Amino acid sequence: MPYDFTSVPDRKNVGSFKYADMFERNPDVPDGIIPLSTADMEFYNAPEIREGLKEFIDHMVLGYTAGTDGFYDAVVDWMKRRHDYEIKKEWIAISDGVVPAIGDLIRCNSEEGDGILITSPVYYPFAASILANNRKVVDVPLLLTEHGYELDYDGIEAAAKEPSTKLMIFCNPHNPVGRVWTKEELEKILTICIENDVYIIDDEIHHDLIMPGYKHTVMATLRPDAGLHMAVCTAPSKSFNLAGMQTSSIIIECPERRKAFVGQREKSFRLMLNILGYEACRLAYTRCEAWLEECIDVIDSNAKYVEAFLKEHMPEIKAFPLEGTYLQWYDFSAWGLTPEALEQFMVKEALIFSDEGYVFGKTGEGFERLNLACPRSVVEATMDRLLAARNRCITL
Description:
Oligomer: single chain
Helix content: 40-55%
Mean pLDDT: 97
Number of domains: 2
């Protein structure tokens, strides 16, 4: 491997959110425990980004800065090359993150009291943003079948037909269940939303992280007018471990909706982004595709290792196939623990700091989400602790 995906960065005492959260949950964590919760990577950034930013700082004044042609060209070229998604520079509206953008999109595309569709278990800031903006959560849970998670088209259509339902926040690929939706699945969702005048907030923040054997489709590419019915939320943050740069490209084809989105940001005087964020994004999209491909292979290998380990040693725990993202979803319900008891087992006995399933909605109770963007040694140590704690504490 030309890149280093085996070293474990030391992120203690440097402000890492997930480490601070780990010590808050269990102050007695011994040295060597790596939290696998919050969705950033336990990998060093690509050397092309590190060296590129050093060169950039050497000759730049770090003042107020707008996006350069190089930044916008990199975004346009990446979407075309990586996703066969042809966009225009003027469609790109900047944001200091996809989550803040979702809040802005909610405010400028709906009114207080309106309904907004989600499909739980799903990324918890969706519901939090809806409630924080005095809208109504319209939850149509995913269907858990013998084949895995599927969309409830009948339920989504019924909810979309309600006059008060104005938006759908759609996770593509899906976080936390790891599904990469097929073209056929996306076409059904798009048709339902267009026919019922439901605008789509299409969260594609993980769309570069597609495991071998799966194919991602940007919903806006499904038909010529598809992009007019949605905002496509993108960022290099998950793909290249750049969350701290807070740089996102929100692609809004409809001029009126794009103007409303920009106006919403201007109300809080969020007029530009971090100068280093612009450059980190440009470097990622122009120099780091080989790093990303190798990273995906490491994540895919980690997921397969965990699946095999659980099948051999703890077959009662179901690991859902990781199709996309680097966040694998596990069903612990066979243990019969309450969500609170499962959490205590993880953080006190197994010393595993994942994201508890219940934070993703009621349908996530009894599940855990584990971040596999980390060196194999970390995954192996985590599985060993899980097995030892299970044998010590769980009676089946």
